Amino acid sequence: MSLLTVFLVLTAYLSPQQQTDALIQAPDTSIVYTKRRIVLPEVPQRGRILDRHDSVLVATRLQYLLKLPRRPPLDTLALGQLLGWGPTTMRKRIADALPYEEAPAGYPVQLRLTAAEAARVRRKSREWPDLTLTEGRQRTYTTSVGAHVLGYMGAEAEAFYNQAKRYRRGRFYQLRNGGIEGYYNGILNGRRGILHPLVDEQGQTQGSWAPDTAFQQGQDLHLTLDVKLQAYTEQLLGRRKGYLVALDPRTGEILAYVSAPIYKPATITAPDLAGVRAKLLQQEGMPLLNRPAMRANPPGSVFKLINAAVALQLGSISPTTGFRCDQKLVNCVHRHPAPNNLTAGLKYSCNPYFYQVLGKVINYVPDSLVQDTVAARHANLAQWRRYVRSFGLDSVLGVDIPREAPGFLPTPEYYDKARGTTSWRYRSIYSLSIGQGEINLTGLQMANMAAIIANRGWYYPPHLVSSIGTGGPLPQFTEKRYTLIDSVHFAALVPGMVAVMQRGGTADASSLEDVGITIAGKTGTVENDEGDDHAAFVGFAPADNPQIAVAVYIENGGFGADAAAPCAALVMEKYLRGSIAPKRKRWEARIQNRARHGY
């Protein structure tokens, strides 16, 4: 094969632009050319992560590490005096750095120091010859909140990954989620400049064999999070199991994102927190699980809002439709007046009412199928599912957090298989009417559901980054999406949601009317066969001009009105007013105390 033929074969695998460059810039096929790849020396600096008010949350900064000697035994009291630490602080810092409690004396330990502490060690280096002080650049967290949002660099988390394997915690197989640091890794990292010269036998450059890669500095990310609201929200959940997601329904920007139990974001990558990581890995509360994105749960009674919207759209009910609170159909845990219309049904969260609402949808038999009620039920369930999916359910919303779960909505085929027959009846699937059974929603989907109702039928995909460098968010977060439900039917839900928060409603104790804020909300209590029921709540405020939508889920929290609604109301008040009214201070303190103790 001639040299010309070889050259043409090689260029055939290049892009059209690359082929043109190669043929034009290296026409003499009698010369042997060498392809070179030159990486330019300038290394891009990784971008910072800032909150919506430009407070720096994560940055690459100089870090000082003090390596303690393995032998002889260390005088920790004297070392503490050198560093300015008391005996208790010294013992705790060393204990936190050990990967397990039974680590032998002299186990190698590294401690992070401040610049001032490092300077003291340098000044006393002759008196402490066995201490080793090193410095290097590493990701540094300037905040103690938002761990599940901020995430971590995979390259700096290898010690954690290896530690997790040793604990055989199979349920943590999704640890490599990385949060914002992982999702936007390439943008934060930037890229080095790379040249692709084509060099002849004399070492002279004869054009390029591929387009050069331009140097790109790492871009800063401005989050949608309000770090002060995030910190406050974490105080309300603390060591409890659950989540709270608050977003601006007008934009889809996430204002607060809490997965509890909480932990500090530096824990995963800090070289002196191996002991803290070990406790996280062993904790039954599964604090490392990113609950709002990765865990889907039955939503409970908050799902009645969607069922009502679908029934209104299909003409199965109207806002004035009433039903008996028939306890023979399904148990109703609230004693309340007759639900003579949709507003009353929502206000009292009447289970029999919504049993009959969805029954009207599933049991409808058109004239064309009057002889085949089985086919009618299958068609009706498929139609119900189609409308419900338009809320972004049973699929990922596309939020900028890795490993988002899709949730689940049952299909007719699912029930055919689960029931072992195609002749199943509504009575065997009625749990859908109260948000139980086979339905599973994530926290992000729950918050987005509240935003959709607040907007009367549309939403922007929830997201955590409002701007990249000097630009805006990723394009997909500026695309407005619509449900299949007409806006008038969403408007019909709001009076009932407002009534939930008023006297006699299921969450009247969480009203903010005393400070002029009208909340539209819905409580949920999710049955749990393995322990106490789960508490749920979704809502938005102000009801007539929504600026914040909130979803709360407290595992084993009991009634939604008692555990979830108060948290949502406090977050709304904090965001809209900046402070909590004196009459709720005792209430706030009680919730924060429960959060600290995890019950």
Give the SSE map.
Layout: H1 3-11, H2 16-25, E1 34-35, E2 38-39, E3 49-50, E4 56-67, H3 76-83, H4 87-97, E5 110-113, H5 115-123, E6 132-141, H6 147-150, H7 158-166, H8 179-183, H9 185-189, E7 194-195, E8 197-199, E9 205-208, E10 221-223, H10 227-237, E11 242-248, E12 253-260, H11 274-282, H12 291-294, H13 304-313, H14 342-348, H15 351-362, H16 373-389, H17 412-419, H18 443-454, E13 458-459, E14 465-468, E15 481-482, H19 487-500, E16 520-526, E17 534-541, E18 548-554, H20 560-577, H21 585-597
Domain Penicillin-binding protein dimerisation: 43-204
Keywords: Carboxypeptidase, Cell membrane, Cell shape, Cell wall biogenesis/degradation, Hydrolase, Membrane, Peptidoglycan synthesis, Protease, Transmembrane, Transmembrane helix
Subcellular location: Cell membrane; Membrane
Q: What is the structural class?
A: alpha+beta
Task: Give the termini separation.
Answer: 78 Å
In the predicted model, the low-confidence regions spanning at least 5 consecutive residues are 1-26
- State the total count of DSSP E strands: 18
Instruction: Based on Cα principal axes, name the global outline.
Output: globular
Largest sheet: 6 strands, mixed
Helix content: 25-40%
What average pLDDT do the residues reach?
91
Our count of helices gives 21
Oligomerization state? single chain
Subcellular location: Cell membrane; Membrane
Membrane topology: Single-pass membrane protein
Pfam family, one: Transpeptidase
InterPro entries: Beta-lactam/transpept, Beta-lactam/transpept-like, PBP_dimer, PBP_dimer_sf, PCN-bd_Tpept
